[in-house]
Specification:
The complex is a heterodimer of chains A (204) and B (575). Chain A has 204 residues and is mainly α. Chain A is built from ten helices and no strands. With 575 residues, chain B is α/β, with parallel strands linked by helices. Classes of the chains: A mainly alpha (204), B alpha/beta (575). At the A-B interface, α7, α8, α9 and α10 of A face α2, α8 and α9 of B.
Chain lengths: 204, 575
């Protein structure tokens, strides 16, 4: 049995939380799902947290609000996937329970990862059709919710763009800007497309 | 009962790349033109730099008329339809797909017009691939050169000439056909990565050059230069630097007072009289049906819809579809091979966040017949094109080259380091028509009005697969010479599927038995029907089709102006 001291545990927790501005943490905690049921949202949130985890490199998909993005989109542009999410999240929980002894959100991260590998490869049972299709759908939407424009509810505080090194939306990039980028000196501007008044807003 | 509208000289069906260009010389000549466009106007404020909307939600195509008519597709007559696409590759709108296209703006090579006679001359007749229905074009590059020039200057194409009147300029493409003068604007700016690729090509003794783009490299015609903001790929231009027909030829044609643009006009059929001449078109707007009479009709609704509208326009004179008494409508169809690409991973950032697909370096040493095929087992080749273009969601979803899983902490470590280190090349390849590649109407699938959608029956043949393998090899060589540490190749190609580079279906040629339109773009059977767009092209060459489709459209319009009385039959039935 590994013994982790309370001090060590606290160090790790604080180490991760320090990367996230406190205000944004509170904001994420306050957001409630509008389309997904609370239990579905929790399962989805636990899944995205493994797809792009929070770690030494910084926040992950959960902190970025990828589940919030997906939930909002399921009420609009991704409405045709609502059934697939309902069926897939339920199947995920059933499979977690039957194969690892607890609902997905309650499993340890190691067990969650091994469940997700089964889902990714199609080895997980109890999904209608292949579980791999559900996995691919959630991974794609997690990318959208982590690396898409924050206008859509994800990429909170631009954590996704910071991870990949994208310096933000600019409407003009001069030759000098390009040279700065090539010198590694172009600072992220943390701007969304819709911070610019010039553009008609998209449908969310 | 359709409401009959006032007669006009010319109706153009579709105001995209080709229809949008033809309107200008017609209007300048004083003809009254009505442009019927299924879509609407879009302007700068509509073009937010929004990757999710533009690249992942298929806006605006996903919410348009064409999206309800997506063609079905199968590899050959023995295979079932594949899964149907859910976003149409092309856009309805004033300006059509030129509103968001990649704007690469190439001329064809001289060989592309004379594939049959040149292959016979250089390699012998048996080297024409079996089953191909390829013919020489009814004219060569010299005939269309003045029209390339007209379009380049009228819409604005930036580039570096390689052959001006026979004199080779090594800064440009030494393989290109002769041109009378240089481009109206210099090429788009380069980047450190593109400079590196250029040096690598030179180290292989190849001849790299900057590619031509219908994008302003500097202020042109009172429109801004490109801002390089990085959303040109499937995005409209927020400063009108991308030279769509919507900001160039169409407004200029309107300014003459002779072009009337009718938006949200959903054309359903072309109508004919008892003599087999077209009399006008029927269209729907807000569910109300109209009949627009015209002396001449120019069909410019993109390759799939051009064929579909002809096949749907049945009459006593044309029981199998308009202009289809020789059974050639839908035949000689093909699309550019844009699978079989190559991707590379570099051990350093490429600084590609703020670029565009038309900003790049090309190598044509392996395109078309620019190299000796003596010891090879195929004809044709590919344009190698490296461009600087990247957005965050796409970067996150790119291949890990087998170096990391697709998710989790190991993936996160990989993507943090490598998000800006990959590059993909799509390699335009010379493609030919074949006997068993064609378009027709799907026997079962219909659009919301109950009309059958277009069906594509086409697959890449052995010749094209061999070109793919050969050019993939060259592309890998190029990437590695530039420092790539990993390279991946796409599959060589099966079913053709939907494409933004679709050709044929209404092929142009002198022989009425094997072609739908004559050397001027007018139907062999219905002499006051013209067809515009790549649907009239009989070969693709190793370059993007748009500039050629536009030059052909201008040429067809010029012919119509010069021969107006005879084409419009203003002097009665006999000439």
């Amino acid at each position: 049995m590994t013994f982790i001291s309370r001090r060590d545990l606290l160090k790790r927790t604080v180490g991760v939380a320090a990367a996230i501005p406190v205000a944004r943490v509170l904001q994420v905690a306050r957001e409630r799902p509008q389309v997904l049921a609370a239990a579905e949202f929790d399962t989805l949130d636990a899944m995205v947290a493994r797809l792009i985890p929070s770690d030494d490199l910084g926040p992950g998909a959960k902190e970025a609000g990828a589940s919030i993005y997906i939930d909002r989109a399921l009420g609009g542009a991704l409405a045709s996937s609502r059934q697939a999410y309902a069926a897939g999240l339920a199947a995920l929980d059933r499979y977690a329970q039957s194969s690892r002894g607890a609902s997905f959100a309650r499993l340890s991260p190691v067990d969650q990862d091994s469940v997700l590998i089964d889902v990714e490869t199609g080895a997980a049972t109890g999904f209608s059709g292949s579980s791999a299709a559900f996995f691919t759908m959630v991974l794609n939407h997690t990318h959208q919710g982590t690396f898409g424009d924050p206008f859509y509810g994800g990429n909170a505080n631009f954590v996704g763009w910071d991870l990949v090194g994208y310096p933000g939306v600019r409407t003009m990039v001069s030759a000098a800007d390009q040279k700065q980028l090539e010198a590694g000196a172009l600072k992220p501007n943390h701007k969304s497309a819709y911070d610019y008044d010039a553009f008609t807003k998209a449908q969310k | 009962m359709a409401t009959r509208l006032k007669d006009t000289d010319v109706v153009i069906v579709g105001l995209g790349a080709a229809g949008g260009v033809a309107a200008l010389p017609l209007a300048h000549a004083g003809l009254d033109v009505i442009g019927l466009e299924a879509g609407s106007w879009l302007t700068r404020k509509d073009f937010a730099p929004d990757e999710l909307r533009n690249n992942y939600r298929g806006w605006p195509q996903a919410v348009q008329k064409a999206n309800l008519e997506i063609p079905t597709s199968r590899a050959n007559a023995s295979s079932p339809n594949g899964p149907r696409g859910n976003v149409h590759p092309m856009q309805n709108g004033v300006g059509g797909t030129t509103l968001h296209y990649w704007a690469q703006s190439w001329r064809l090579n001289p060989w592309d017009f004379k594939v049959v006679s040149e292959t016979r001359r250089r390699y012998g007749a048996p080297r024409i691939p079996k089953g191909s229905t390829v013919e020489d074009w009814p004219f060569g590059l010299e005939e269309i050169e003045p029209y390339y020039d007209k379009v380049e200057y009228e819409i604005g194409v930036s580039g570096q000439a390689g052959n001006v009147d026979g004199k080779i300029d090594p800064r440009g493409n030494r393989f290109e056909g002769p041109r009378k003068r240089g481009y109206p604007m210099p090429p788009l700016r380069s980047t450190a990565f593109l400079d590196r690729m250029t040096s690598a090509a030179r180290s292989l003794a190849w001849h790299p050059f900057p590619g031509p783009a219908a994008v302003n490299s500097r202020s042109y015609q009172n429109r801004s230069a490109c801002m390089y903001h990085g959303f040109c790929n499937r995005g409209g231009c927020h400063v009108d630097a991308k030279n769509s027909t919507a900001v160039t030829t169409i407004p200029r044609a309107q300014a003459t007072g002779r072009l009337k643009v009718v938006t949200r006009a959903h054309v359903t059929t072309l109508e004919v009289d008892g003599d087999g001449r077209v009399t006008g078109v029927k269209y729907l707007t807000d569910g109300v049906e109209y009949f627009q009479p015209a002396k001449v009709v120019l069909l410019a609704s993109y390759t799939y819809e051009n064929t579909r509208l002809l096949l749907l326009s049945k009459s006593k004179a044309y029981p199998n579809g308009l202009s289809n008494n020789h059974g050639q409508v839908g035949r000689h169809y093909f699309s550019h091979h844009t699978l079989a690409g190559v991707s590379a991973l570099f051990p350093f950032n490429l600084d590609s966040w703020y670029g565009l697909p038309a900003q790049g370096v090309a190598v044509d040493d392996w395109a078309d017949d620019n190299f000796d095929h003596g010891g090879l087992d195929f004809i044709g080749g590919g344009n190698l094109w490296v461009y600087s273009d990247r957005r965050p969601i796409g970067a996150a979803g790119s291949s890990t080259f087998g170096l990391a899983p697709a998710w989790g902490s190991a993936w996160k470590t990989f993507i943090r380091e490598n998000a800006d280190r990959t590059n993909s090349a799509y390699i335009q390849k010379s493609t030919l028509p074949y006997e068993d590649n064609y378009l027709d109407l799907d026997p079962a699938v219909k659009d919301p009005l109950g009309f059958p959608v277009c069906r594509i029956t086409a697959e890449f043949k052995e010749n094209e697969r061999r070109i793919a393998a050969f050019t993939q090899e060259k592309m890998e060589q190029w990437y590695r010479a530039a420092g790539a540490i990993a390279v991946q190749r796409g599959p060589l190609g099966g079913a053709m599927g939907l494409s933004t580079h679709a050709y044929g279906g209404t092929r142009m040629g002198d022989n009425a038995e094997t072609n739908v339109v004559n050397r001027w773009g007018f139907s062999h059977e219905a002499s006051n029907l013209g067809v515009l767009g790549a649907s009239i092209m009989g070969t693709s060459g190793a370059h993007n089709p748009t500039l050629t489709a536009q030059a052909l459209a201008w040429r067809t319009a010029d012919y119509l102006v010069k021969n107006w009385k005879s084409v419009a039959r203003l002097n009665g039935p006999t000439l």
